[in-house]
Amino acid sequence: MDKIGIGTVVLSKCGRDKGRYFMVCKVSEDGYVLLADGAMRKLARPKKKKIKHVSATNDRLQAIGEKLASGKKVFDSELKAALKVYNDKKE
Predict the structure, then answer these.
(1) Among 7, 15, 52, 86, which is 20 to 30 Å from 58 by CA?
(2) How confident is the model at residue 91 (pLDDT cuts 50, 70, 90)?
(3) How many Cβ atoms are within 10 Å of 42's Cβ, its own excluded?
(4) Contact, 15 vs 53, CB < 8 A?
């Protein structure tokens, strides 16, 4: 598994959102990541979480991650639809 980067799908291990899948929106140098899922956490207000509190999957939302990194507009509905597969399979 490679390093966590923009577009990586992660699973929350701690907190009230434990067990939910998110996409990494930004990686900070101080050991934090900003997470969004398009439903509970919108892209406008991502969740700040320590890297040690998330578990990276081997999956990456390539198209959405590239759009986000290049500064193009990404809609919450796009992200929600992409993560629906992950959040539905855990239930």
Answers:
(1) 15
(2) low
(3) 15
(4) yes
